[in-house]
Amino acid sequence: MSSVCRSNMRLLLLHFFATAATASAFVLTPQYTWTKLILTHHWPTTFCGMEKCHSKIDTWTLHGLWPDNGMDCNSTWPFNVSLIEDLLPDMEKSWPDLISPESTSFWKYEWYKHGTCAAKAESLNSQHKYFGKALELYHKVDLDSVLKKFDIIPSTKYYLFSHIQEIIDGFYGVNLKFQCVHPSKNAGYQILGQIEICFTADFSVMHCERESRAVNSSLRAEAKPGFSVCDPEVPVYYPPMTML
Ligand SMILES: *[C@@H]1O[C@H](CO)[C@@H](O)[C@H](O)[C@H]1NC(C)=O
Ligand SMILES: *[C@@H]1O[C@H](CO)[C@@H](O)[C@H](O)[C@H]1NC(C)=O
Ligand SMILES: *[C@@H]1O[C@H](CO)[C@@H](O)[C@H](O)[C@H]1NC(C)=O
Active site: which residues (predicted)? Predict the structure, then answer.
């Protein structure tokens, strides 16, 4: 072997080790384990039909901002409502506790279950950042106005589910996930209840997984009993406030 050749070999090896070191550093010290954030909206009339609450809200409200992996990531990080005091007027309007409107327990629950996991990312590593970002995305997405804009409004008539899905996915340019209540196996209709829009870790919209089986099963448990992916073949009921 000539000396030129040997030194090339050394360079190659150096390069290999440098690459390997970078790769393993990346694998061994992940900052967090989730790759997707799911912004979940629910329709108060449908939710209260299941939970026996009495909501007078006729806008889609926030259910939560959920990382696609991990739950209850840091139980020693207490929820403290005074840290989000400036957000409260918006929280009460956009992220209301439909069961006990005067309480902060819904936000506390969402913080422990999902917020402490989201907080593994620097961009969400405080209660103010987490709740503030959820509100920001909620207003940016503005689902309520988008539905209205396309004349998808609460009604006593049924919609063709595939029509709603096509229009809304088309508007956002990604697949959203629509969840319905299926009153009984052969009811012949389903009730629109929850709409999820997915984001990358740097808050660009991305496709949501449509099949419920593709969602991490521990996350799927979040859906209240009765919510499952809407069936494209079944007429969908989008209930007006007073109907359920
Ligand atoms: C689902 O989430 C749990 C809790 O974070 C995790 O332990 C598990 O590996 C995840 N499963 C898949 C298939 O991502
Ligand atoms: C949990 O939260 C506390 C309070 O913010 C923080 O000091 C601690 O480092 C966190 N632990 C982990 C494992 O992130
Ligand atoms: C909640 O946060 C406020 C503002 O930072 C602080 O003064 C207060 O001590 C905290 N309360 C608890 C119970 O940690």
Answer: 63, 110, 114
